[in-house]
Specification:
The complex is a heterodimer.
Chain A: H1 2-14, H2 21-26, E1 38-41, E2 46-52, E3 56-59, E4 62-76, E5 81-93, E6 96-98, E7 101-109, E8 114-116, E9 119-121, E10 124-126, E11 131-138, H3 142-145, H4 150-157, H5 167-183
Chain B: E1 7-8, H1 11-15, E2 21-24, H2 28-31, E3 41-46, H3 51-57, E4 62-67, H4 73-80, H5 87-94, E5 103-109, H6 117-127, E6 131-142, E7 152-158, E8 161-166, E9 173-174, H7 179-186, E10 189-196, E11 201-208
Parallel strand pairs in B: 3-4, 3-5, 5-6
Antiparallel strand pairs in B: 1-9, 2-8, 6-11, 7-8, 10-11
The chains are: A alpha/beta, B alpha/beta.
């Protein structure tokens, strides 16, 4: 169920189509997050300060500060203007961002997006026309490619249990967060 | 017009747009030989961050610095008045990398052809603190100084080829360098291999000489 929603959202992210008439009418952004799971900062909003939380976030307004949504997704809509460091599971930029990004999963700069800063992520996706000034530090994510690393993960969480079902996934998140904490520069 | 004084790229040549294409590189395999060998590599890419180059390096543990010097104001200054510029200072200011940064791979593409002799010398000097004895650099020059290069943008297409497309921005002033001149101006970089390409470009693999 969660996976279904997640994949819906990701498809919404990757489709680069212009926002629909319905979106314009409702004032929603082009990103298709599910209501209730996603917070939105509208185009008329300016926030100066830090943002943290436990849901996805779409930013169409202006933010100066720091955004930390560790295991969630951040979308900077095409009207979004950020002077902020961003930490999230995945980050998509359709607007502009001046600051550093840590993307636990991936960072995508769309054809409309502009980023000036440094990026740390397993994967950087640049669409044709994206503007990126800075450096990117990439470490391909082993869990996506192979199952093998999971066997290494069993001691931290379930030492008495053999590897099976969902345990390794939980470990996976923990490991990623640990990776975050130590990244820094 | 004297080549040493710079020449605007032939307008007629630039006017006819050319479809994007991929071109094989016999030097890429040597350039990227250490990629994916366990050690994190550090890369300097002179030019825009492009989808192809980003994708290629996503396979490896690496850090890639994108420096779009082509569109930096210093290049326009070079065109207008290169007399009073402290070029070494200008390039050093642009190379604002963290202290201790060392590049394993430098991708110059065709950038060196847009620097006149003093600028090329200054560029090379500014780069010196960030390269080490194992650094390998890649770039394009010209077979002879009469060759005109198209206004193109390059990116990595694969481990053995690059992608070429017309550049959107207006062309920069062109300073073709003979290989002997290039050798002298680059100082601590030497041409390790050079391959003549069909359009009169020469693809270079450069190594350090210290």
């Amino acid at each position: 169920m969660f996976d279904k929603h997640k994949s819906d959202r990701q498809e919404g992210h990757q489709s680069n189509s212009p926002e629909s008439a319905k979106d314009r009418a409702t004032g929603e952004t082009s990103a298709s997050f599910k209501p209730g799971k996603t917070g939105t900062i509208g185009p008329g909003i300016t926030i100066i300060g830090d943002i943290s939380g436990d849901e996805n976030l779409i930013i169409e307004g202006t933010v100066e500060g720091r955004i930390d949504l560790g295991t969630h997704e951040v979308t900077i809509g095409k009207t979004g203007r950020l002077k902020a460091d961003v930490v999230a599971k995945s980050v998509r930029i359709d607007g502009s961002l001046e600051g550093d990004i840590i993307g636990n999963d991936r960072v995508l700069i769309s054809r409309r997006g502009t980023v000036e800063g440094n990026i740390v992520a397993p994967r950087l996706i640049l669409e044709d026309g994206a503007i990126f000034r800075g450096s990117v530090e990439m470490t391909p994510s082993p869990p996506e490619k192979k199952e093998a690393p999971r066997s290494v993960q069993k001691p931290p969480v379930a030492p008495s249990e053999p590897l099976k079902t969902t345990k390794p996934v939980a470990v996976d998140h923990g490991r990623k967060e640990a990776g975050f904490a130590t990244k820094g520069g | 017009m004297h080549a040493a004084q710079g020449a605007v790229v032939d307008a007629a040549l630039q006017a006819a747009s050319q479809p994007a294409f991929n071109q094989p590189s016999k030097l890429f395999p040597q350039l990227f030989r250490n990629c994916g060998e366990g050690e994190r590599i550090t890369v300097l890419n002179i030019g825009k961050a492009t989808p192809g180059t980003g994708d290629y390096f996503s396979q490896f543990a690496c850090k890639v610095h994108f420096k779009d010097l082509y569109s930096d104001p210093v290049m326009r200054l070079l065109e207008s008045s290169d007399e009073d510029l402290d070029l070494k200072l200008e390039f050093s200011a642009l190379f604002d990398f963290a202290a201790g940064s060392k590049f394993d791979v430098c991708l110059f593409w065709d950038f060196l052809n847009f620097l006149n002799a003093p600028a090329l010398r200054a560029f090379s000097a500014a780069l010196r603190p960030y390269i080490h004895h194992g650094t390998r650099c890649h770039g394009f020059g010209v077979h002879n100084v009469g060759t005109r290069l198209r206004n193109q943008q390059f990116s990595i297409a694969s481990a053995d080829g690059f992608h070429v497309r017309d550049r959107q921005e207006p062309p920069l002033r062109f300073y073709p360098h003979a290989q002997t001149e290039l050798y002298e101006l680059l100082g601590h970089l030497d041409i390790d291999h050079g391959i003549l390409l069909p359009d009169g470009k020469v693809e270079f693999l450069l190594k350090t000489v210290f």
